[in-house]
Write a structure and sequence with these properties.
With about 100 residues, the protein is an alpha+beta fold. The protein has 3 helices and 6 strands. A hairpin with a 4-residue loop joins strand 3 and strand 4. The chain starts with 12 loop residues before the first helix and ends with a strand.
């Protein structure tokens, strides 16, 4: 679960939303899910892509959705149902190295 919001008011609602969307994306895709939040507060969620011609982890797929929508920097990522891969770390590092929230 994410760290409590400043002042001990409980989890930050935006972080809870990110985890919820990552969980939902994974359920729709039938596996792990991820969601990323950009520096403008927009959220993008995705499951893994496993085609013969294209393979993306859930984090890579969510980042691809964000970048294709104009995101330049990420502030947070949530990954549900899997551990981040080295490839996830590389793609996240290009956009600012957000904190990883696991649920």
């Amino acid at each position: 679960m994410p760290d409590p919001a400043p002042g001990g008011a409980g989890p930050d609602p935006e972080d809870v939303k990110l985890l919820t969307l990552a969980r939902s994306a994974g359920q729709r895709a039938g596996g792990p899910g991820a969601a990323v939040r950009d520096d403008l507060g927009r959220v993008y969620a995705a499951g893994a892509v496993a085609l013969d011609s294209l393979r993306l982890t859930p984090v890579q797929a969510a980042v691809a959705a964000a970048v294709s929508s104009g995101a330049r920097r990420l502030e947070a990522v949530a990954l549900i149902g899997a551990e981040p891969t080295d490839a996830d770390g590389a793609v996240l590092g290009e956009l600012g190295g957000p904190s990883v929230l696991r649920g």
